[in-house]
Amino acid sequence: MATNAPATDGRRKAAAARRKARQAEIIAATRQIFDSKGVRDVQIEEIASAVGINRAIVYRHFTGKEELFALTLVGYLEELHDAMAAAAASGSAPSEQLERIVGAFVDYGVAHPAFVDCAQALMVRPGDELLDEIAEGPLFRLGRGITSCLTVLSDTLSHGVDEGAFTLSDDPVLLANALYASGLGALQLARLGILVSEAAPGIPTVGQISAAQVRSYLVRSALALVTA
Questions:
Q1: Domain chopping of the chain, boundaries
Q2: How far is residue 13 from each of residues 26, 59, 108, 113, 167, measured CA to CA in Å?
Q3: Which of 1-10, 28-37, 57-66, 85-94 is least confident?
Q4: Which of 5, 69, 205, 218 is the 20 to 30 Å CA partner of 144?
Q5: Can you tell me the distance from the alpha carbon of 159 to that of 91, in angstroms, rounded to the nearest whole number?
Q6: Which residues pair with 206 in a beta bridge?
Q7: pLDDT tens for residues 165-200?
Q8: CATH code of the domain occupying 65-227
Q9: What is the value of pTM for the model shown?
């Protein structure tokens, strides 16, 4: 008895492959726009135009702009993880590893300001909103991308404790999350290059701060937190 199941399965696989390729194409175009002009004010129409499609097709592949931006952030996080992992592997003592990991984080953020914008844009959204606006699969990929970076840091912190090099008052995972969040804020400071202080009581003044100064501060702060 003849059956068309194999042909049907083949068409489904081909359709799934085309859908996956189109999604990758849209994400790649989004990343290119982010890297060239930043995240702010990027519209779906601009992304669709870069791919040569209309916005309706974009919405066939993504639930909305937040989901597309989240999946674009995953690409940045994968690169950041590789940079942090390489930094960890290049150090011998735990303190040296931590110094290089934090340095790699800052260097990547300075080189990819769109990563900072994209990460901060998602961080300020309440969790329940993200759950409503991003499908389970993409949200899982985003979480996996973030945790892959955090694990490099928390594993180094744990290793330092085991070696007796670090003294932590908090859980390594909590400290890793705090360093990641504060690092994103400091990267924004590095981009602005502005340091606000008080010249006299009630008189504000604006100075300058470089990315190198921010990098040095974050490294010293991280080391101080684990060696106090």
A1: 65-227
A2: 20, 21, 37, 37, 53
A3: 1-10
A4: 218
A5: 13
A6: 196
A7: 999 888 999 999 999 999 999 999 998 898 898 888
A8: 1.10.357.10
A9: 0.88
**Could you tell me which residue, 136 or 123, shows the higher pLDDT?**
136
- Asked whether 173 and 197 are in contact (CB, 8 A), the reply is no
Rounded to whole angstroms, the Cα distance separating 131 from 91 reads 38
